[in-house]
Amino acid sequence: MLGSGEAAEFDTRLPHWFGSTGGGPVEVLSLFGSQGERLHVRAGPGAP
To answer: What is the pLDDT of residues 17-28, one digit of tens each?
Structure first.
């Protein structure tokens, strides 16, 4: 389970499930490079 501000990287060639571990909703945001091969993770807060 990931908390706010955490990120995970995994092999997308394997099937994955994303969902809530409880009764509430879940939000997933996936960002990939132009070739779809690398996940982009921001190391710090964005510029104002």
So the answer is: 877 888 888 777
Residues 45 and 23: their CA atoms lie apart, in Å, by: 30
Report the alpha-carbon distance of residue 38 to residue 10 in Å, rounded: 10
- Per DSSP, what are the bridge partners of residue 32? 39
pTM exceeds cut of 0.70: no
**Alpha carbons 20 and 12: distance in angstroms, whole number:** 20
Cβ 1 vs Cβ 33: under 8 Å: no
**Got the DSSP string for 33-47?**
-TTS--B---SSPPP
**Using DSSP, how many helices (H) and how many strands (E) does the chain show?**
0, 0
